[in-house]
Give the backbone structure.
Amino acid sequence: MDNKRLTSFSLIPPSQLTSFNYVKTPMWIYDVEAFHICWANDPALTLWNNSQDNPLLSRDLSEDMSQVIELSIKQIAKESRKKPCKSWWTLYPQNIAKQVYIRFSNISNDDDQNLLLCEALLERDEVERDTHFALDNTIKSLFNRDGSLLSGNLRFAECYDTQTISLPELIEMEVDELKRKMGMNHQIEFERQTINRGVMAWYNFHIKELMPEQHYIISQENITERKLKEQTYRHLAYHDQLTGLLNRYGFNNFLIEQCHKAEPFYLFLVDLDAFKLVNNNLGHSAGDEVLVEIARRFVMHLPDSYQTCRFAGDEFIVVVPQQQDSQSVDAISQLILDIVAQPIEKIDSIQITASIGAASYPIDAKEPNDLIMYADTAMYKAKERGSKSYCSFAQQMSLEIQRRSAIQQGLKQALNFRELVPLFQPIVDMKNNTLIGMEALLSWDSPTLGRVPPQEFVEEAERSGMMNEIGQWILRSACEQCLTWQQRTGHPLTLSVNVSAIQLNDNFINTLDDILKKTGFPAKQLTLELTESIFLLNIKQVIKRLKAISSRDVGVCIDDFGTGYSSLSYIHKLPIDALKIDRSFISDIDNSDVVIEATVAMASKLGLKVVAEGIESQHQREMMLRYPNLLAQGYYYSRPVNAQEFEKLSLFTKLLPKE
């Protein structure tokens, strides 16, 4: 016995544990944090095959424990603080499998400790052995009006002590309550779990009152096997098999119950940022490991009063009761973000971030579905602010829900009905003020929504899974158009096309090869622009894919450099050709000259071209002309225009052969 920990953290004093040795039920105390059993009565020692060579209290149970089992035990420890939990478990004493129905009670007096009192109520072997109670599963008995036994069949005598059993003891209900529930029908049927002579069983009771004697004839059908299966299926139905948390179905039931209680609470919807990239680039097994780790952290680090579920693929929901000493929404959100953001060491120390939307019951909504929808809307609002953000629902967001839905529906027909239009913005050699190429952008003129900005519909395209299809279409269309302009001008005009991190998967290289082959566009005149979000991916996979792109003579440019996730420790390792200084530095050029100068100097040392994005005034142009060999684009030269308007630009017409 580990008296020190039991004395410090157990609600049951060690001196009282010796009395449990006279109980036939196997009982032991499991220290969740230390992975060992610190006390067990004699029946438990027998159950666990205790021996001098392998004493139970010295065994390290963590050696053969999977992460999913560890997480499930910690979830039980959390839930059993409120009330005992019952579940079937398979124990492996000395590698011998035993299925046992256990009642778990958390007896810790400290919130940071978890001591589980485990009571093995039943072994499955006993259930199967004890089915001899009745070949027809029927036990019959007769009681008088006072609840005293008059007679019972042989099956009844095998199951109960006929000298002491009474009707209230049999059905766990007083006679007066039974009569009230029967009413004028004089009969009733119900199911009940009983423990008799140390044996747990489920029975279907059918009770009929015999008049005028007011005797009660009782038929019991043993339904233990069915109920055990139901409990197993119910657990599987209500819990996520990967993380052990409540699943969507189990959480919906929980949320309905919470709303019926009419007690205020917060609902936080937690979405893992760019999780699709983890699956695409590291594989689904790595994605599963991430989900298990995040779930483990929630169980370990969130208070016991918080209820957590895995709601969808990469979405979790946390429900927090509102009490007088509750933390604020901001504090809770920040706690969750910090828990998620810790590097996952077992997967190359990958760092995951999250976006959180919060809704409040009953202030924001009183219906479960509305609460989830409002939290989801707030979560997407948080994503607009960037990763690792949170937002509380506000009523004006309802219009945004309708807008998002309309955009997602409209995108499905935009490609088919040619509502998407390629736009082109000139890229200019600043020193000579000559056109050297263009960046392909995208415009959507919807007949129902009007002109939808790219920053709005691209985000919805990524959420709805249409980004790959749209990305392929703009790359193919832009290559075809630029090739036509190369042929008309006789100049090797370059083409830059944006590629999102979601597109940069294993299939992208095949798509690139196919488009270059079918359009005939020269690879060395194509540059793919990638945002700094690629640094959220596994850097080894990023380098591998960028090398595959570079091996085809296709250029790679880091877009919006200096504003996102880039790590200078990786820049020199990446097979890239250019950096684009973000427009935010150009717009504040008088205060950003130090950053711009450092970026240009670094690029020069690494042999990279530099594009100044967002040149809009003569002053900005003159300031940037201080640096040699810069390329530029921005409204000073031209806004993004369609192909017909691009051909009218003086920058373009200067390149046309003179007739």
Summary: The CA atoms of residues 17 and 330 lie 45 Å apart.
